[in-house]
Design goal:
This is Conserved hypothetical protein CHP02391 domain-containing protein. By secondary structure, this protein is mainly α. The protein contains eight helices and four strands. The protein is elongated and about 85 Å long.
Length: 235
């Protein structure tokens, strides 16, 4: 991150939202000041603040205000030193960002994620991954869990039942583990993640931020396997 640029944007937001006196000819009994910036200037500044917050907090806030801006300024100028004093120094753990996820996942999830509906984001990503799998193997007659398990099955393909191959069978143990594992992994995702969202009311279940991004990351891995796998068919 360009910290100097970010700090300038945050300072600009504060400046544009300062109240300044109205020109004498515009003063009214109930109105003597206005915000310094125009509506367009303040809107642009708010977008910059939201983008900065998304990078720092790994989550885009729904609105920007003075308290958020001042916290971000503190984070950029003193946050690292404070954590070091508190014994929290060291390299941060790896973090998952939406743009690093497979396009099948993030393109489907992003509209819901940015609106704060994480359950819908996971659901949409799962649906899109399943649709891509259906298209690749040309099968729509069975459920997603069974489909992913059959598609990655180490057994030979059958008429109208193609297989997805992640490696060749020269190493028998590797071949079996890769394909049985991928099938079980995919079936587990659809059963334990997607179906949980699909079968309960919103007030009965809600993904926490960490749970949701981890679920998206898991579907991203499945999507990469599906995309790179070679299709094996039989006449």
């Amino acid at each position: 991150m360009d910290v100097d640029w970010a700090l300038k944007q945050l300072d600009l937001y504060l400046s544009l939202h300062e109240r300044v006196p109205l020109p004498p000819e515009e003063v009214k009994p109930n109105k003597k000041t206005r915000l310094r910036g125009s509506v367009e200037e303040r809107s642009n500044a708010q977008n910059s603040v939201l983008a900065i917050a998304e990078v720092i907090d790994r989550e885009r806030p729904r609105w920007a205000g003075e308290s958020l801006v001042r916290r971000l300024i503190w984070e950029l100028t003193e946050g690292d030193e404070a954590r070091e004093k508190l014994g929290a120094e060291g390299d941060p753990p790896p973090l998952v960002e939406g743009k690093s996820l497979h396009p099948w996942v993030w393109e489907a999830a992003r509209p819901h994620w940015t609106s704060g509906n994480h359950d819908a984001a996971v659901w949409a990503a799962a649906i899109n991954v399943n649709s891509r799998l259906q298209r690749k193997v040309n099968r729509k007659e069975i459920g997603e869990g069974q489909l992913v398990r059959e598609s990655f099955s180490p057994e030979s393909p059958k008429p109208n039942v193609p297989r997805l191959r992640l490696c060749d069978p020269s190493n028998v143990s590797l071949f079996k583990d890769m394909h049985v594992g991928a099938g079980n992994f995919g079936q587990g995702l659809f059963s334990a993640v997607r179906n949980v969202v699909n079968h309960v009311e919103p007030d009965e279940h809600s993904f926490r931020d960490a749970d949701a991004i981890e679920a998206l990351a898991a579907f991203s891995l499945l999507a990469r396997w599906i995309e790179r796998a070679e299709l094996e068919t039989v006449s």
